[in-house]
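Issue 218. Parser rejects a valid record. Input:
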Amino acid sequence: MMEAGDSLLMKIGESINRISKMEFPAPAGITWADAISNRNWLIHEYDNIDRFVTRQTLTHSIPELKVALEPSCELASRKIADLSNFS
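Output the parser choked on:
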């Protein structure tokens, strides 16, 4: 079960890594570098993963990240819809 959580955190970290390279500003209270560092740790230090930290990240940090990103995701969805309607 926790391996699935590790995989999710790795994917989120990689997505944030790509977003940060596009110079998309992080929402207030969010630091892109933290999520990227977490991803790198999970990938390169998999034999040292602390399951308590993984659980805490999944139950606290990810929900906070979701709330912080919702306005940006809604704006992006509207822009994509506008572009689709334009074609």
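Fixed in the parser; the record now loads. Residues 2-86 form one domain.
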